[in-house]
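I can't quite decide. Please look over this sequence plus C-alpha coordinates:

:::
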Amino acid sequence: MAVEKVILAAPRGFCAGVEMAVETVERALERHGPPLYVFHEIVHNRHVVEEFTGRGVRFVQSLDEVPMGAKLIFSAHGVSPIVWQQAKEKRLELIIDATCPLVEKVHREVRKFAAQGYSIILVGHEKHDEIVGTSGEAPERIRIIADVEGARTVNIPDPEKVVVLTQTTLSVDDTREVIDVLKQRFPRLMTPPKEDICYATQNRQDAVKQLAKLVDLVLVIGSANSENSNQLCKVARSLGVPAYLINDHRDIEQAWLEGVERVGITSGASAPDSLVHQVARYFEEQGAEVSHAGLVQENVHFALPVEITPTA
Protein backbone atom coordinates (compact mmCIF):
# COMPACT_ATOMS: atom_id res chain seq x y z
CA MET A 1 0.00 0.00 0.00
CA ALA A 2 1.51 3.33 -1.07
CA VAL A 3 1.15 6.61 0.78
CA GLU A 4 -1.97 8.28 -0.62
CA LYS A 5 -1.95 11.62 1.13
CA VAL A 6 0.66 13.99 2.57
CA ILE A 7 -0.40 16.82 4.87
CA LEU A 8 1.95 19.73 5.59
CA ALA A 9 1.54 21.36 8.99
CA ALA A 10 1.30 25.11 9.42
CA PRO A 11 2.98 26.88 11.03
CA ARG A 12 6.29 25.07 10.66
CA GLY A 13 9.92 25.86 9.98
CA PHE A 14 11.82 29.07 10.58
CA CYS A 15 10.70 31.21 13.51
CA ALA A 16 11.40 34.93 13.74
CA GLY A 17 14.52 34.39 15.84
CA VAL A 18 16.01 31.94 13.34
CA GLU A 19 15.12 34.20 10.40
CA MET A 20 16.90 37.07 12.14
CA ALA A 21 19.99 34.98 12.96
CA VAL A 22 20.34 33.48 9.48
CA GLU A 23 19.81 36.87 7.84
CA THR A 24 22.45 38.32 10.17
CA VAL A 25 25.06 35.88 8.85
CA GLU A 26 23.94 36.49 5.25
CA ARG A 27 24.27 40.28 5.62
CA ALA A 28 27.59 40.03 7.44
CA LEU A 29 28.98 37.84 4.65
CA GLU A 30 27.77 40.31 2.01
CA ARG A 31 29.21 43.29 3.84
CA HIS A 32 32.47 41.90 5.21
CA GLY A 33 33.13 38.67 3.31
CA PRO A 34 34.80 35.56 4.78
CA PRO A 35 36.26 34.45 7.05
CA LEU A 36 33.46 35.04 9.51
CA TYR A 37 33.38 33.33 12.91
CA VAL A 38 30.18 32.20 14.64
CA PHE A 39 30.19 31.10 18.28
CA HIS A 40 28.27 27.79 18.24
CA GLU A 41 26.04 26.83 15.32
CA ILE A 42 24.05 29.91 14.26
CA VAL A 43 20.96 27.69 14.48
CA HIS A 44 20.70 23.97 15.12
CA ASN A 45 20.31 22.73 11.56
CA ARG A 46 22.85 20.70 9.65
CA HIS A 47 21.89 22.02 6.21
CA VAL A 48 22.10 25.68 7.27
CA VAL A 49 25.47 25.14 8.96
CA GLU A 50 26.95 23.19 6.02
CA GLU A 51 25.85 25.83 3.51
CA PHE A 52 27.43 28.66 5.50
CA THR A 53 30.58 26.60 6.11
CA GLY A 54 30.95 26.23 2.36
CA ARG A 55 30.88 30.02 2.05
CA GLY A 56 33.66 30.67 4.54
CA VAL A 57 31.82 30.80 7.86
CA ARG A 58 33.69 29.08 10.68
CA PHE A 59 31.57 27.73 13.53
CA VAL A 60 33.53 27.49 16.79
CA GLN A 61 32.86 26.02 20.23
CA SER A 62 35.47 28.14 22.01
CA LEU A 63 36.74 31.69 21.61
CA ASP A 64 40.24 30.18 21.64
CA GLU A 65 39.49 29.25 18.02
CA VAL A 66 38.86 32.90 17.07
CA PRO A 67 41.97 34.88 16.13
CA MET A 68 42.63 38.45 17.29
CA GLY A 69 40.99 41.04 15.07
CA ALA A 70 38.46 38.61 13.55
CA LYS A 71 34.75 39.21 12.95
CA LEU A 72 32.47 37.27 15.34
CA ILE A 73 28.73 36.55 15.55
CA PHE A 74 27.01 35.13 18.63
CA SER A 75 24.38 32.53 17.71
CA ALA A 76 20.63 32.72 18.28
CA HIS A 77 21.00 30.71 21.52
CA GLY A 78 22.74 33.48 23.47
CA VAL A 79 25.96 33.48 25.47
CA SER A 80 27.01 34.10 29.07
CA PRO A 81 28.56 37.35 30.33
CA ILE A 82 31.92 35.55 30.63
CA VAL A 83 31.91 34.78 26.90
CA TRP A 84 31.03 38.41 26.14
CA GLN A 85 33.94 39.56 28.27
CA GLN A 86 36.35 37.11 26.62
CA ALA A 87 35.27 38.36 23.19
CA LYS A 88 35.87 41.99 24.17
CA GLU A 89 39.34 41.14 25.46
CA LYS A 90 40.31 39.66 22.07
CA ARG A 91 40.08 43.11 20.42
CA LEU A 92 37.94 41.73 17.62
CA GLU A 93 37.19 43.85 14.58
CA LEU A 94 33.46 43.25 14.98
CA ILE A 95 31.10 41.52 17.42
CA ILE A 96 27.50 40.99 16.30
CA ASP A 97 24.94 39.59 18.72
CA ALA A 98 22.30 37.47 16.95
CA THR A 99 20.70 36.21 20.18
CA CYS A 100 16.96 35.62 19.77
CA PRO A 101 15.06 38.36 21.66
CA LEU A 102 12.97 35.70 23.39
CA VAL A 103 16.14 34.07 24.74
CA GLU A 104 17.45 37.49 25.78
CA LYS A 105 14.17 37.97 27.70
CA VAL A 106 15.05 34.94 29.87
CA HIS A 107 18.57 36.35 30.42
CA ARG A 108 17.01 39.60 31.68
CA GLU A 109 14.72 37.65 34.00
CA VAL A 110 17.71 35.80 35.46
CA ARG A 111 19.56 39.06 36.10
CA LYS A 112 16.51 40.67 37.68
CA PHE A 113 15.61 37.82 40.03
CA ALA A 114 19.24 37.16 40.97
CA ALA A 115 19.63 40.83 41.91
CA GLN A 116 16.56 40.49 44.13
CA GLY A 117 18.10 37.54 45.98
CA TYR A 118 15.99 34.74 44.50
CA SER A 119 17.10 31.19 43.92
CA ILE A 120 16.37 30.33 40.28
CA ILE A 121 15.22 26.94 39.02
CA LEU A 122 16.00 26.76 35.32
CA VAL A 123 14.09 24.06 33.47
CA GLY A 124 16.02 22.78 30.46
CA HIS A 125 18.83 20.56 29.22
CA GLU A 126 22.08 21.34 30.97
CA LYS A 127 24.33 21.04 27.90
CA HIS A 128 22.07 22.88 25.46
CA ASP A 129 23.67 26.09 24.15
CA GLU A 130 20.74 28.18 25.36
CA ILE A 131 20.90 26.84 28.92
CA VAL A 132 24.70 27.19 29.06
CA GLY A 133 24.38 30.86 28.12
CA THR A 134 21.40 31.59 30.38
CA SER A 135 22.83 29.89 33.46
CA GLY A 136 26.02 31.89 33.03
CA GLU A 137 24.14 35.03 34.04
CA ALA A 138 24.02 33.91 37.68
CA PRO A 139 25.59 30.43 38.08
CA GLU A 140 25.73 30.66 41.87
CA ARG A 141 21.95 31.16 42.11
CA ILE A 142 20.75 28.72 39.44
CA ARG A 143 19.71 25.07 39.73
CA ILE A 144 19.12 23.35 36.39
CA ILE A 145 16.51 20.58 36.18
CA ALA A 146 15.36 18.66 33.11
CA ASP A 147 12.20 16.86 34.13
CA VAL A 148 9.62 15.99 36.80
CA GLU A 149 12.14 13.85 38.69
CA GLY A 150 14.44 16.84 38.91
CA ALA A 151 11.56 18.94 40.19
CA ARG A 152 10.93 16.41 42.96
CA THR A 153 14.54 16.36 44.16
CA VAL A 154 16.00 19.83 43.56
CA ASN A 155 17.32 21.50 46.72
CA ILE A 156 16.77 25.22 47.27
CA PRO A 157 18.43 27.23 50.12
CA ASP A 158 15.35 29.38 50.80
CA PRO A 159 12.04 27.78 49.72
CA GLU A 160 10.31 31.09 50.44
CA LYS A 161 12.26 32.93 47.74
CA VAL A 162 12.42 30.87 44.54
CA VAL A 163 11.50 31.47 40.91
CA VAL A 164 11.23 29.11 37.93
CA LEU A 165 12.35 29.98 34.40
CA THR A 166 12.49 27.70 31.35
CA GLN A 167 14.38 27.02 28.16
CA THR A 168 12.38 28.57 25.30
CA THR A 169 12.22 25.44 23.11
CA LEU A 170 10.77 22.86 25.50
CA SER A 171 7.48 20.99 25.26
CA VAL A 172 4.67 23.12 26.65
CA ASP A 173 3.02 20.07 28.24
CA ASP A 174 6.22 18.74 29.85
CA THR A 175 7.07 22.16 31.25
CA ARG A 176 3.60 22.46 32.75
CA GLU A 177 4.03 19.12 34.57
CA VAL A 178 7.43 20.17 35.95
CA ILE A 179 6.11 23.52 37.17
CA ASP A 180 3.08 21.84 38.78
CA VAL A 181 5.42 19.64 40.85
CA LEU A 182 7.53 22.67 41.81
CA LYS A 183 4.43 24.58 42.93
CA GLN A 184 3.46 21.69 45.20
CA ARG A 185 6.93 21.70 46.77
CA PHE A 186 7.35 25.49 46.87
CA PRO A 187 3.96 27.18 47.43
CA ARG A 188 5.54 30.64 47.14
CA LEU A 189 7.17 29.80 43.79
CA MET A 190 7.39 32.81 41.47
CA THR A 191 6.90 32.54 37.72
CA PRO A 192 7.66 35.21 35.11
CA PRO A 193 4.78 37.48 34.02
CA LYS A 194 4.78 35.76 30.62
CA GLU A 195 5.89 32.16 30.18
CA ASP A 196 9.29 31.57 28.63
CA ILE A 197 8.22 28.99 26.02
CA CYS A 198 8.45 30.93 22.77
CA TYR A 199 5.41 31.61 20.60
CA ALA A 200 6.87 29.58 17.70
CA THR A 201 7.55 26.53 19.86
CA GLN A 202 3.99 26.59 21.16
CA ASN A 203 2.43 27.18 17.74
CA ARG A 204 4.37 24.32 16.14
CA GLN A 205 3.47 21.94 18.94
CA ASP A 206 -0.21 22.91 18.69
CA ALA A 207 -0.06 22.34 14.91
CA VAL A 208 1.40 18.86 15.41
CA LYS A 209 -1.39 18.00 17.85
CA GLN A 210 -3.91 18.84 15.11
CA LEU A 211 -1.85 17.07 12.45
CA ALA A 212 -1.66 13.89 14.52
CA LYS A 213 -5.47 13.57 14.34
CA LEU A 214 -5.31 13.42 10.54
CA VAL A 215 -2.40 11.09 9.76
CA ASP A 216 -0.90 7.67 10.43
CA LEU A 217 2.70 8.88 10.67
CA VAL A 218 4.48 12.18 11.35
CA LEU A 219 7.85 13.14 9.86
CA VAL A 220 9.64 16.04 11.57
CA ILE A 221 12.36 17.70 9.52
CA GLY A 222 15.16 18.93 11.74
CA SER A 223 18.59 18.09 13.08
CA ALA A 224 19.25 15.74 15.99
CA ASN A 225 20.60 18.60 18.14
CA SER A 226 17.51 20.75 17.57
CA GLU A 227 15.57 20.68 20.84
CA ASN A 228 12.32 22.05 19.39
CA SER A 229 12.42 19.48 16.54
CA ASN A 230 12.83 16.61 19.00
CA GLN A 231 9.93 17.97 21.02
CA LEU A 232 7.67 17.89 17.94
CA CYS A 233 8.34 14.16 17.61
CA LYS A 234 7.62 13.72 21.29
CA VAL A 235 4.29 15.57 21.01
CA ALA A 236 3.12 13.35 18.13
CA ARG A 237 4.19 10.17 19.90
CA SER A 238 2.37 11.25 23.07
CA LEU A 239 -0.82 11.14 20.99
CA GLY A 240 -0.12 7.61 19.80
CA VAL A 241 1.16 8.51 16.33
CA PRO A 242 4.59 7.22 15.23
CA ALA A 243 6.99 10.09 14.53
CA TYR A 244 10.53 10.25 13.17
CA LEU A 245 13.10 13.01 13.00
CA ILE A 246 14.79 13.34 9.60
CA ASN A 247 17.36 15.70 8.11
CA ASP A 248 15.82 15.39 4.64
CA HIS A 249 14.03 12.91 2.36
CA ARG A 250 17.10 10.66 2.19
CA ASP A 251 16.58 9.64 5.83
CA ILE A 252 13.12 8.16 5.20
CA GLU A 253 13.04 4.40 5.77
CA GLN A 254 10.56 2.35 3.77
CA ALA A 255 9.78 0.21 6.82
CA TRP A 256 8.19 3.26 8.46
CA LEU A 257 5.69 3.54 5.60
CA GLU A 258 4.32 0.00 5.71
CA GLY A 259 0.55 0.20 6.12
CA VAL A 260 0.66 4.00 6.16
CA GLU A 261 -1.84 5.88 3.95
CA ARG A 262 -1.48 9.42 5.33
CA VAL A 263 1.80 11.09 6.27
CA GLY A 264 2.05 14.38 8.14
CA ILE A 265 5.10 16.59 7.64
CA THR A 266 6.33 19.41 9.82
CA SER A 267 9.70 20.97 10.58
CA GLY A 268 11.52 22.44 13.53
CA ALA A 269 12.01 26.18 13.93
CA SER A 270 15.54 26.00 12.52
CA ALA A 271 14.77 23.93 9.39
CA PRO A 272 14.53 25.68 5.99
CA ASP A 273 11.17 25.26 4.26
CA SER A 274 12.94 24.05 1.11
CA LEU A 275 13.56 20.77 2.94
CA VAL A 276 9.82 20.38 3.59
CA HIS A 277 9.05 20.83 -0.09
CA GLN A 278 11.74 18.31 -1.04
CA VAL A 279 10.12 15.71 1.21
CA ALA A 280 6.67 16.58 -0.16
CA ARG A 281 7.96 16.12 -3.73
CA TYR A 282 9.46 12.77 -2.74
CA PHE A 283 5.97 11.50 -1.90
CA GLU A 284 4.28 13.37 -4.75
CA GLU A 285 6.49 11.62 -7.28
CA GLN A 286 5.15 8.33 -5.90
CA GLY A 287 1.56 9.43 -6.51
CA ALA A 288 0.63 11.00 -3.16
CA GLU A 289 -1.65 14.03 -2.98
CA VAL A 290 -0.22 16.95 -0.98
CA SER A 291 -2.39 19.26 1.11
CA HIS A 292 -2.03 21.68 4.03
CA ALA A 293 -3.50 21.87 7.53
CA GLY A 294 -2.98 25.13 9.39
CA LEU A 295 -3.94 26.79 12.62
CA VAL A 296 -2.47 30.28 12.74
CA GLN A 297 -0.58 32.70 10.54
CA GLU A 298 2.57 34.05 12.14
CA ASN A 299 3.60 37.62 11.48
CA VAL A 300 6.34 38.09 14.07
CA HIS A 301 9.57 39.71 12.90
CA PHE A 302 12.68 40.71 14.86
CA ALA A 303 14.94 43.59 13.92
CA LEU A 304 18.42 42.78 12.67
CA PRO A 305 21.41 43.77 14.83
CA VAL A 306 22.38 47.41 14.22
CA GLU A 307 25.86 46.39 13.06
CA ILE A 308 24.49 44.99 9.81
CA THR A 309 21.47 47.22 9.12
CA PRO A 310 21.80 49.65 6.19
CA THR A 311 22.14 52.66 8.50
CA ALA A 312 24.93 51.10 10.56
Remarks:
- Residues 8 and 292 are 5 Å apart (CA to CA).
- The radius of gyration is 21 Å.
- Residues 16-32 form the longest helix (17 residues).
- The mean pLDDT is 94.
